[in-house]
Write a structure and sequence with these properties.
By secondary structure, the protein is an alpha/beta fold. The protein has 2 domains: about 100 residues, no CATH class; about 120 residues. It has 6 helices and 10 strands; from the N terminus they run E-H-E-E-H-E-H-E-E-E-H-E-H-E-H-E. Helix 3 runs parallel beside helix 4.
Length: about 260
């Protein structure tokens, strides 16, 4: 990606088309010029346009039809993949400081960010992403896709249930950093579904205790208005479906 999603320019010299290394928000090898083009007779400076018009322009220029996918190889920076992105997709972020700041706010607000890691290591990817874009940009993120939190029995008190540590820390990161998050998609897949499918009495009790705990953590994110559970396994027990829908979650199967 020959552009940026953080605060500095990204090189794609070694990356495949559509992908890029994720930048550090503190490095600035290409400072954004502060001066805008001088207004002449018959012309209007872009920044003198009403803010509503500027916002509409940002949306028209930046909006992608697809999600933005995030991934990270061990020991490397976060990288992004945006299918069918235009070559100069993020050129607006290099116009001047005011336009750059305004465009970033729109960029993070209008896109769906998908974390491409189905293991417990997704916590590291989430942390790296939010750290990489900086606290201001993290506060603009409105739609994020993560793993569904796993619940487990406590080792010293096997009749009690807790959210597994990686899921709990991920939720706390969202509570702290993503202050304008309105839609959270949580994915159920082959790596995290087993605790939801135990059909004996003990398994049913685990689910009945775990889901309200997860919901309580989600409700701490005061901006959150939509919780989507996207299921990528063949089925869920009727009890699980009933409990999730009773909590106000939207349950969908596959990518529809």
């Amino acid at each position: 990606m020959d552009s940026e999603i953080g605060s500095t320019q990204i090189s794609n010299a070694t990356s495949p088309p559509g992908s890029a290394s994720f930048p550090s928000p503190t490095a600035d090898h290409h400072p954004v010029p502060k001066a805008s083009l001088p207004a002449t007779s018959g012309t209007v400076s872009f920044v003198s346009l009403p803010k509503k018009i500027r916002q509409d322009i940002y949306k028209r220029v930046l909006l992608m039809r697809h999600s933005i996918f995030l991934f990270q190889d061990r020991g490397s920076r976060v990288e992004t993949f945006a299918p069918d992105k235009p070559r100069r997709w993020l050129a607006l972020l290099h116009v001047n400081r005011q336009v750059s700041d305004e465009a970033r706010a729109v960029l993070y607000d209008i896109h769906r960010f998908v974390l491409l890691d189905t293991t417990q290591q997704q916590l590291g990817l989430l942390r790296s992403f939010l750290t990489g874009i900086g606290s201001v940009n993290a506060g603009f993120v409105s739609h994020l896709c993560t793993n569904f939190p796993v619940a487990e029995r406590m080792e010293d008190r096997p009749r009690e249930v807790k959210i597994r540590e990686d899921g709990l820390q991920s939720l706390r990161l969202l509570q702290e950093k993503c202050t304008n998050l309105t839609t959270l998609e949580t994915w159920i897949h082959s790596e995290n579904y087993r605790f939801l499918t135990e059909t004996d009495e003990d398994g049913s009790r685990l689910v009945q205790e775990a889901l309200p705990q997860i919901d309580a953590q989600l409700k701490v994110i005061s901006s959150l208005s939509k919780i989507i559970v996207r299921v990528h396994v063949q089925s869920l027990p009727p009890l699980v479906m009933e409990l999730m829908q009773g909590l106000g979650w939207i349950v969908v199967f596959g990518d529809r």
